[in-house]
Specification:
56 residues, mainly alpha, 75% helix, rod-shaped, transmembrane
């Protein structure tokens, strides 16, 4: 009985880890798109001054 519960628990943990990793891929793609949009917005800035949409 205990090994069966451990296998079921492991299956649930692996399923939830897979779901979390899929969500993290979506977050990574959204961040990449925002980062690339930052370059476009920076290049369309004012005149000769290089404007930055972020400050590092």
């Amino acid at each position: 009985m205990v090994p069966l519960l451990l296998v079921l628990l492991l299956a649930v943990l692996l399923f939830s880890a897979g779901f979390v990793l899929k969500v993290l891929w979506y977050v990574a793609v959204i961040v990449l798109v925002l980062w690339l949009l930052g370059f476009v917005m920076r290049s369309a800035g004012t005149g000769g001054r290089r404007g930055r949409w972020y400050r590092w």
